[in-house]
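Lesson 9: reading folded outputs for more than one chain in a single document. The general rule is that every protein is listed as its sequence immediately followed by its structure tokens, and records are never interleaved. Here is the first one.
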Amino acid sequence: MIRVQRVMRVPTGIAKLDEMLGGGLPKGSTTLVAGGPGTGKTILAAQFIYSGATKYGEKGVYVIFGESAETFKNNMLSLGWDFGELQEKRQVEILDLISLREPESVETTFDEIVETARVLGAKRLVIDSITALTVVFRDVAEIRTLISVLQKVLRGLDCTTILITEVPWGSNRLGMGIEEFISDGIIVLEMVSRRNQLRRRLMVLKMRATELNLKYYQYEITKNIGIDVLPYPEAEE
């Protein structure tokens, strides 16, 4: 008799999304959250870290490229999430790595992420975003090397990880088309026009060890809740 090992799950804190995932993200997995401007990628990732610290007793590291930690914390306060307080309590660490000036600094950057997660005892990690991390690289070969190194770094951490990537308006490609190959899961966030209104919708495109229905679900962004996925998939049109 073959015994199937049960996959441990890490809840995101987004009730309907966790239901769709059979309880949450697979423990130790790397999930790519891809979307265009205004879709709420950072909010989803922040909700994952904030819920981990406040609901599930899991410490988290939020790595920021592209904006300052103070800007991030102020934006999250507008949702009712006090990341400054979580920092003071040593439940969350925010790494402000605004930009890389040269490819040679990547190794030092990764070492800082690993050491911060180790010292804190983090179980959750967010990198926001892969797109901003790779701006100093000149060609696809260098980016592939970076992604390969990042994959090895993440495998060595005892963390469940979310990577954020940008999807340009009008593009069907997820980020640079490379990140998806190191990910155990892909969550796509979109804004679409329906009857002269923009609506947000989400699909879990891929997730290791998870049965998926591959349907779009609408979601809203509200204060003190964050991402709130509506209970039923979009109707066929």
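And here is the second record, again sequence then tokens.
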Amino acid sequence: MSEITVSIVKKNKDKELFLRFPSKIYDDKHIMQDKVFEREVLENTNILCKGVKIIPLIAKDKKEEVVARCLLSLYEDDIAYIGFFESVNSSDVAKELLQTAESIAREEGKKKVLGPIDLSFWARYRFCTSEDLPYIGEPSNKGYYKELWEENGFQVSEEYFSNFFDVADESFDSEKARKRLQDAKDEGYIFTHPDTDNFEKYLRDIYPVLIEGYKDFCGFKMISEEDFVKLYSPLKMVIDTETVFLAYKDGDLKGFLICLPDYGNLLCKARTPALLLNVMNVKSHAKRYVLLYMGVKRDCLGLGSALSQQVVDILKVKKASGISALIHSGKASGGYFKDKIKEQRKYVMLEKCFRI
């Protein structure tokens, strides 16, 4: 009999154990846990909990200490999503937890399990294959997680990467990107930055472009425009408007590119006066920016390259470096300024299909 027991989290005491466990796995510099978000998920009060059945699980050893956790997200499709996965480096522990999750998924009539996905595309997903210090928005996990999943029959289904660039200087000029930018302007595109006093308006403009661009991504679930606005409104407190680019033509938004100062894991921490001062200091004096979100309407050929040139131009002014983050393998954006890539990190999604 296994010394590991896996149970569904129902009691408040177990919810607290679920929330505390990541702090036993990571040091203060690597942990990317947002406890406020996780608590809302466990209480089923977060806007991303609409239309989904959640089943949180914890694994305990014979001493009744938590050694792993995860959460199943079940929608009306035939896929079960596994997220919020954390575990000690033990094949036995991971086997008990993942097999329990798989059994539940089968009982619910699912045909495969996919992860890691915390609820859906709109939250954290993917495993990073290394354990470097995380940048803002990056999934942070132990390097052995991928192997633990593969030992239990999971296979890589999707691959992603992030490109790291040095401080931008004149050598970053791309004749092709510069021409795309000028062509776009000649064609009537107007490039602007958002006004935080009317930030909701810009989010509503971005919404249909983002939905069109990301609807085929793993774990994508449709959310309403109102929920999208609620989800992303807090960004106005941390964005540097000079590094958010919007491309309009004939009054319609055709593309956008959102860069954020690299706050690392600061925004995941408890809000204290000292933390807020630290955040404001990074916002004002950022040395690195992360290109986190980009969307371009499909009929706007070359607009993504034009937007990327504008980012390079502002990074030159700010004397800052950049990260082109979490690019799906095969996407054209992964080739922007490829001759200037200093470092690359890789990420994966894994799946396990059930035998009928």
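What the second record shows: The CA atoms of residues 7 and 112 lie 21 Å apart.
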